[in-house]
Amino acid sequence: MKALVRAALVALVLVPLAGCAGSDARFPGGYEEGPRRDDKAFGSACPQVAPGTADAAKLAKSRALAAIRSMPQLSEFAALVKTAKAEDMFASMQNVTVFVPTDEGFAALPEARRKELAQPRAAGDLIRSLVVAQDLTKEDLAAGRSYPSLQEGVQVRAAAAPGGATVDGADVVCGSVTTSDARLHLLSALPDRES
């Protein structure tokens, strides 16, 4: 029965993924079943979403893309989603983890890379490489493991760091921001996957 449920979830998400620009991507597995685990927001850049605050309560009721669009420090990522035409992909997600570089991270990119990401295909590839079809908490990131992203062949490598975690060399500046359909981890930079 579980296999049938998983197959149905994969089928449901393949159509939205096809709408994400540059998509030859195949979904690497079904969405994690069951409720998300409890985890508190952590990191120096997210006191406004600390548990018990009004902002945290509002975000918890929002879908991931709406939450991202509501945070001024994530405007570049929100624009990237639009460039990639990936709104349908976000609309179909449930119980996933999204690693979201902040505007400061995008600002630090070389001009050539910024121009590349203005193309729908490159934007779509980057977005898929930042989404994992599992609910990853701070404890999962600190375990120092790799997780398959939605971009075929791309692994997200996490590691423990003082007070938090890193993802592909980028600091998690605000982790475990929960929305109704995802867990967001905000990154100080775009993941370093060169080499």
Explain what you see.
With about 200 residues, the chain is an alpha+beta fold. The chain has a single domain, classed as FAS1 domain (Roll), CATH 2.30.180. About 35% of the residues lie in helices and about 20% in strands. It is built from nine helices and seven strands, in the order αααααβαααβαβββββ. It has helices at about 1-20, 55-60, 65-70, 75-85, 85-90, 105, 110-115, 120-130, 140; strands at about 95-100, 130, 145-150, 155-160, 165, 170-180, 180-185. A seven-stranded mixed β-sheet has the order 2-1-7-6-5-4-3. Strand 3 (about 145-150) and strand 4 (about 155-160) form a beta hairpin. Helix 4 packs across helix 8. The longest helix has 17 residues, at about 1-20. It is globular and about 35 Å long. It starts with a helix and ends in an 8-residue tail after the last strand. The model is unreliable at about 1-20 and about 20-35 (pLDDT under 50).
- The DSSP helix count reads 9
CATH topology tier name: FAS1 domain
Shape: globular
Helix content: 25-40%
* Structural class assignment: alpha+beta
How many structural units, i.e. domains?
Answer: 1
Give the CATH level 1 class: Mainly Beta
Question: What order do the helices and strands follow?
Answer: HHHHHEHHHEHEEEEE
Strand order of the largest sheet: 2-1-7-6-5-4-3
Beta-strand content estimate? 15-25%
- How far the N terminus sits from the C terminus, by CA atoms, comes to 41 Å
Number of beta strands: 7
CATH superfamily label: FAS1 domain
Q: What's the CATH architecture?
A: Roll
Radius of gyration: 16 Å
Uncertain runs: 1-19, 21-34
Mean pLDDT: 81
Largest sheet: 7 strands, mixed
